[in-house]
Amino acid sequence: MSDFVLDHTMIRVSDLEESMDWYQSHLDYEEKGRWDGDGFTIVYLGPEDVHEDGALLELTHNEGEEDYDLGDAWGHIAVRVEDVHDAYYDLMDEGVEDYRRPEDNPGYAFVKDPDGHEIEIVERDHGAKWSLDHTMIRVEDADEHLGYWTRKFEYEHAGRWEADTFANYFLKPADAPEEAMTVELTYNYDGRSYDLGDAWGHLAVRTSDLHDDWDTLMTREAEDYRDPESCDDMYAFTKDPDGHEIEILDPHDSPVDRS
Fold first, then answer.
1. CATH placement of domain 6-253
2. Residue 14 pLDDT more than 60?
3. Distance CA 201, CA 247 (A)
4. Where is the VOC domain positioned along the sequence (predicted)?
């Protein structure tokens, strides 16, 4: 497994069983791991044949919490299919709400999960069906964030789209396979600011040595948010310039079974 490859995207859900049923029924996800904590449950989901460097979706359910704010700093997760039109209308036949049709978009479509998290459907010739292709976050300063991901995590450009009013930049580690998830930075030229909300949790990157890589991040002046010692030496957290949380995770300490 590659260092600093994106391991998962975490979202918070109000009804764990409803969300698990939605993702398992419509995206054919299976449970890859689970962690029951004091007042919360974490479940990792993904396709049966997800690549070893592919990303998973983490659902977090906090007991007694049923109303989350989506904010607008997090955009969406994107999943891969061979044919967007067929995949979208298969979901419509299954009772998924009609949201943004492929006829109205150049090669993609959108649906929403039960909590309103947006899911983009994109056509790809690689990766398992419904596997995570990218996670989009909105950023207030494109130059700052491009520098952040390239300096802190040694990410490289994997694609870009520049329009009249906005730009999208895709990044991932240079040695990551094409099946790995990218991070999409969306920059709107009008100078707007964003609300993080609390329905989206974090992005997570893998490490082969949590403490050494944490020290490297500190040398590169990443934010010291939650160091390994404060997280029982199992993981750590930093933040990007806009406050999006990024977990640093040793997969050997994760409940996920990738065998």
1. 3.10.180.10
2. yes
3. 10
4. 5-124, 131-251
How does DSSP assign 217-258, residue by residue?
HHHTT---SB-GGGGTTTEEEEE-TT--EEEEE-GGGSS---
Instruction: Report the relative pairing of strands 182-188 and 132-139 from DSSP bridges.
Output: parallel
- Catalytic residue numbers read 120
- pLDDT tens figures, 175-190: 999 999 999 999 999 9
Cα(42)–Cα(61) distance, rounded to whole angstroms?
6
Sign for the pseudo-dihedral over CA of 185, 186, 190, 195: negative
pTM for the predicted model, two decimal places: 0.96
- Residue-wise pLDDT for 16-28, tens only, equals 999 999 999 999 9
First to last CA, the chain: 12
Distance, in Å, from the CA atom of 80 to the CA atom of 108, rounded to the nearest integer, reads 10
Torsion of CA 169, 172, 173, 174, to 10 degrees: -60
DSSP codes of every residue in 53-74: T--EEEEEEETT-------SSE
- Residue among 4, 8, 3 at smallest CA distance from 258: 8
Q: How sure is the predictor about 258, in pLDDT bands with cuts at 50, 70 and 90?
A: low
